Task: inverse folding
């Protein structure tokens, strides 16, 4: 009917998960794009603090007491005082898709000055296939105004289902603490109008601040690890999840895209505090990356859960010698899957798709 606002895409099939230790004032700026979606707010830190949700939003809010009540002893796998807590929101959601965003991320403008509906772009990314097996030099061939270029095998043009859509950031880029300390005034002003599939066999540093994913395809792999309070490492939550997720997507024949949409990041965290949280990760990752590059998942791993349990065994066997933290993490990976399956008993796990024709 003329004049009736169009129903936003995936209105009843997508939850927006927001971890917060601050406040939710940023939602006012996102209201035009988020108001028709259900929010899952994961309140970190002191559960006795009241987080005010702006009027007009449909939401559920979980604090640490709720997490402990719902998961019981399995709550031990959900981090405290780290944005990693957000993965609890993925677990309790009942929707097919998740979009997660940080509370210091705002609506960015494209080069024409138009407000960017980041959620709409993530949905487009997730609803169109990925091309992990052969790189298309004109970027995402499924976008309006693009296509497969000459020489692209027709046998591969169907693509594969997209499991993850990784968005980027204008203003404060997601730099690690050392880089941010060296370049405190660096701002990202470069708007690159591109979406591309991350090729199979290539890992990437997944940032959790502007991220969409298909929860039915890859949800159980999106565990953000043991970070923050009581842990020797922080702020590697999204990195850990990204390495595990990419490995499993490659095995399952699923795709991950990166690029548009941009959000405007006005970082609120302190680089000196961040350095303390990150520093073990900065040298551990020099061993973690070769580990993930060497992992082979057996063909018997036909679901994400089976892949993840197998991965936890390899983490224990091969990373446990780096630090006992990885033994704890391997156990927490198993607890996460047990909790996931307990809260999502009928969750149909996507069976493995074979990759391209051999
Ligand atoms: O203890 C905490 C700290 C933060 N949060 C919430 O998590 C997000 C991200 O926090 P913040 O914006 O302060 O951190 P950044 O340095 O910008 O974050 C980057 O590093 C990743 C952290 O691992 C993050 O995803 C990246 O964007 C905010 O919503 C905080 O409120 C928390 O819940 N608990
Ligand atoms: Mn931030």
Result:
């Amino acid at each position: 009917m003329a004049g009736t606002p169009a129903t936003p895409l995936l209105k009843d099939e997508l939850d927006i998960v927001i971890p917060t230790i601050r406040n939710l004032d940023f939602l006012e700026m996102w209201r035009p794009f988020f108001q028709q979606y259900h929010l899952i707010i994961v309140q970190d830190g002191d559960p006795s603090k009241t987080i005010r949700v702006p009027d007009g939003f449909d939401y559920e809010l979980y604090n640490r007491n709720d997490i402990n009540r719902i998961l019981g002893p399995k709550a031990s796998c959900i981090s405290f005082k780290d944005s990693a807590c957000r993965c609890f929101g993925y677990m309790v959601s009942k929707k097919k898709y998740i979009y997660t965003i940080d509370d210091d991320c705002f609506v960015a403008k494209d080069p024409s000055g138009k407000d960017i509906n980041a959620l709409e772009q993530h949905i487009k990314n997730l609803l169109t296939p990925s091309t992990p097996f052969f790189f298309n030099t004109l970027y995402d061939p499924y976008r309006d105004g693009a296509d497969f270029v000459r020489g692209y095998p027709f046998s591969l043009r169907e693509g594969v289902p997209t499991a993850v859509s990784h968005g980027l950031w204008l203003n404060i880029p997601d730099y690690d603490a050392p880089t941010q300390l060296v370049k405190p005034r660096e701002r990202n002003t470069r708007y690159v109008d591109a979406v591309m599939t991350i090729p199979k066999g290539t890992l990437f540093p997944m940032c959790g601040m502007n991220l969409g994913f298909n929860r039915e395809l890859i949800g159980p792999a999106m565990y953000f690890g043991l970070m923050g309070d009581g842990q020797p490492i922080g702020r590697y939550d999204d990195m850990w999840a990204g390495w595990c997720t990419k490995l499993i997507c490659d095995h399952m024949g699923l795709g991950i895209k990166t690029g548009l949409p941009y959000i405007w990041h006005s970082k609120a965290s302190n680089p000196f505090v961040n350095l303390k949280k990150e520093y073990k990760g900065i040298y551990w990752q020099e061993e973690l990356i070769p580990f993930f590059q060497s992992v082979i998942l057996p063909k018997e791993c036909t679901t994400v859960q089976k892949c993840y349990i197998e991965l936890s065994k390899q983490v224990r066997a091969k990373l446990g010698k780096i630090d006992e933290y990885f033994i704890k993490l391997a156990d927490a990976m198993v607890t996460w899957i047990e909790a996931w399956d307990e809260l999502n008993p009928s969750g149909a796990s996507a069976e493995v798709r074979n990759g391209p024709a051999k």
